[in-house]
Amino acid sequence: MSKQKTIRVVQIASPIGRQGYQKKCLIGLGLNKINRTRVLPYNDSIFGMVKKLNT
Fold first, then answer.
1. I want to staple 31 with a disulfide (CB 3.0 to 4.6 A). Which of 11, 39, 40, 49 is the partner?
2. Cα-flanking dihedrals φ and ψ of residue 40, to 5°?
3. What is the rounded distance in angstroms from the CA atom of residue 16 to the CA atom of residue 46?
4. Each residue of 24-48: b (16+ CB within 10 Å) or e?
């Protein structure tokens, strides 16, 4: 039985002043306040949302 890969995501800044798609990505990742942490499965859809937030 193989372990599923996970990724830990931390929100470090406020979504105020961000573009709409970035706010939607934060909601999709389950983040809504600064310093919130989520451990999510590592897959293409999660990685794509994280990549949009890093730019």
1. 11
2. -120, 155
3. 22
4. ebbeebebeeeeeeeebeeeeebee
Given phi > 0 = left and psi -120 to 50 = alpha, else beta, which region is 12? alpha
CA angle 37, 41, 43 (to 5 degrees): 125
Question: What kind of architecture, by CATH, is found in domain 6-54?
Answer: 2-Layer Sandwich (3.30)
Q: Is the pTM of this model over 0.85?
A: no
CB burial of residue 54 (10 Å; 0-12, 13-18, 19+): exposed
Run means of pLDDT, 10 residues per run, the chain, 55 residues: 87 94 95 96 95 86
**What is the reported pLDDT for 14?**
94
